Amino acid sequence: MASKSTLAQRISMKMKICLVGEPAVGKTSLVRRFVFNTFDPKYFSTIGTNIWKKKLQLTHPLNDSTLDVDMIVWDIMGQKQFRDLLRDAYFFGAKGVIVVCDSGRRETFDKLVHWVEAVTEITGDIPQYLIANKVDLGSVSFEEKEMKKMAGTYDCPYQMTSAKTGEFVEEIFLNLATRIVQKRYDDAQAGLDEAEKTLESSPEDIDSLYIKGEALVILERYDEAIAILHEVTRLDTDYPDVWGLKAEVFSKLGDEKMAALCSVRA
User: In which order are the strands placed within the sheet that holds 96-102?
Assistant: First the structure.
């Protein structure tokens, strides 16, 4: 088996982001500004769902190396009948959400709560960001302290911004991506700690062994992970997903032959 020192590949991850809010609050303009650094003053209603992609490079939270991130941004049509129809599919797998209102339209600000709760119902606790767009127009229909209070309720940041000028737009997406990455590793560490606690009294608890192995993979402790996953397959040769995970670990360790063998079993 190849050692960690032979690893040449950079660590990378994908993340799905959902952009939500009432119609005409500037969701598409915000993501166009972020992805292409452009702005079109003409309004075109989103028909269905637009999907945008951008590659980012962030600082790895474990070792300060470079972490390559593929951010996939889903921009959904704001009309109620459409969003209700596709809500589950749209939010499924999302790792973060940007909730947008038009700073000059009070009713869109009041609907932020609805959007936050709709997302959370499907995704659970994921990083969120509250955005008041179109501040360049100079008319703000609510006091900033109201938005600050709402953000405090949901334990997330907020920002007054403008897709037209680009003010704070890139910072918003990068901040959200950084928080998503940190949460992934924090959750893995919490899962590892909980699994190890269970294994102290039940060393062959197979579910806890798998959770430990999965957490070690996320934390990039590959040699430890493969040892644990071998123990899982000793206890249950057909334990769900274990062979696919073993294939991933062997690939990370540079042992493509073992990775291929495990892929066949997956």
Answer: 49-59, 66-76, 12-21, 96-102, 128-133, 158-160
